[in-house]
Amino acid sequence: MSLMTCAEDRPFRCLACGATFRRKEHLARHLFDVHISERHRHLCSICNAGFWSENSLASHLVKKHSMQTKRKPFKCGLCDYTSAYKGGLTRHTMIHTGEKPYSCTVCDATFRWSPSLTHHLRIHSGEKPFTCNVCDKAFSSKGCLKLHFRTHTGERPYKCKACGAAYAKRNRLTRHLKSHTGERPHRCHVCGAHFSEKSSLKIHLKIHTEEKPYQCKVCAAAFSTRYRLVGHLRIHSGEKPYHCSLCNTAFSHFSNLRRHAKTHTGEKPFQCTACHSSFAERHSLISHLTTVHT
Question: pTM higher than 0.70, yes or no?
Fold first, then answer.
């Protein structure tokens, strides 16, 4: 494109800084926002650009100076949450109010945020637009694809400060932290067993009801959780997505990879309190206790 074409496309020029605009009102807005500094109430401390509202200044800081500042002027009055945008704070307050304005037209599910509803609707439609470029597995959201990709890279960004254990998912770290505190607030009303997570209790209750809603379409085997069905399906597909970073051995389940990794490290974290023997796996410790110390 020639300079003449550019000039014709953006004929309105700011005499103060040389910026050009396609429309006269855009030039007027530019002059108003940037160069009439004596009338501005909110000035950028980095480049001196002026803005009429704190929200506009906050947006400018994030877009133009994200490396220099982490300013988040919008603060929640109920917790320590802060946001660079007023909209971010508005969405956050729904956590406290319980408001869920986005409703599914197929079922009764409701959501706080529009992207959550979009993701949910793909459950009904079966749409999976995000594909892994390593194994071609498809996912309904970019977030799910990102989490899956860590099975190939071995990335575990969420680390326990107490023992150094690392996890690919934040919720796995949250669950692990309760192993240090011993917190198990969720109790089974049938047998009295306690669990650290409500989801774990829900899975446990299926033992009592013998409910197995997840059925294999290949061999008709049924399972109490979706996770166990997914693991079972790998028997039919031969898929082994979990790879050892040291010897490249592949496994169908992450637990098998974790068990295998200990053959390289020699790690034996499960120790007998009676004789101080150590074991790589919890079940080996339990077997030792029942056969040697009972």
Answer: no
